[in-house]
Amino acid sequence: MQRVKVLVTLKPSLLDAQGKVVQDGLHALGYDNVESVRIGKVVELNLTDGTVNVQEQVREMCQRFLANTVIENYDIEVLN
Amino acid sequence: MQRVKVLVTLKPSLLDAQGKVVQDGLHALGYDNVESVRIGKVVELNLTDGTVNVQEQVREMCQRFLANTVIENYDIEVLN
Q1: Domain ranges across chain B
Q2: Neighbours of A41 (CB within 10 A)
Q3: pLDDT band at residue B51 using 50, 70 and 90 as cut-offs
Q4: From the CA of A41, how many Å to the nearest CA of chain B?
Q5: Are A45 and A4 in contact (CB under 8 A)?
Q6: According to DSSP H, which parts of B1-80 are helical?
């Protein structure tokens, strides 16, 4: 079995409203040293062993389905 | 500035409904080798430099606010 971890994050130029809310929450709890917060998604995939090129297949999944490439970046990490 | 990445994932024993939906979507697109999918959150924090123990402070943030420790695990990575 192949494990793959995909991180999907909003592009840096875009306002991350969810991150701003979390930042305000942390300030309210007294963590004044928090300068910025950005929230993203982790997608952990387990793939059956096979003949496909995993990195290339997951890149295609991200392009077609897992990420909105207009506003999001993705980072693929093949774990084993 | 200190950068910290926190991964918050649902505990393995719990059903991940969002992950199941993504898995079904990937199967519908023809990726039949996808065995399981789990979705989590990434929280990227930028902290101002200071005297606090970053690892310990972020662990406290997770316990109090960033994660629901009844159903979620978290993993803290101090990047620099």
Answers
A1: 2-78
A2: 19
A3: confident
A4: 5
A5: yes
A6: 17-28, 54-61
ipTM of predicted complex? 0.90
Contacts of B62 in chain A (CB under 8 A): none
pLDDT of B52 strictly over 90: no
pLDDT tens-digit readout, A53-72: 999 999 999 999 999 999 99
pLDDT tier for residue A51 given thresholds of 50, 70 and 90: confident
Question: How many Å apart are CA A45 and CA B46, to the nearest integer?
Answer: 28
Nearest to A41 by CA among A15, A24, A19: A19
CB contact under 8 A, B37 and A50: no
One of 3.40.1830.10, 3.20.20.80, 3.30.1280.10, 2.40.10.120 is the CATH number of A2-78, namely 3.30.1280.10
Q: How far apart are CA A47 and CA A37, in angstroms?
A: 32
- Strand B72-78 versus strand B2-10 pairing type: antiparallel
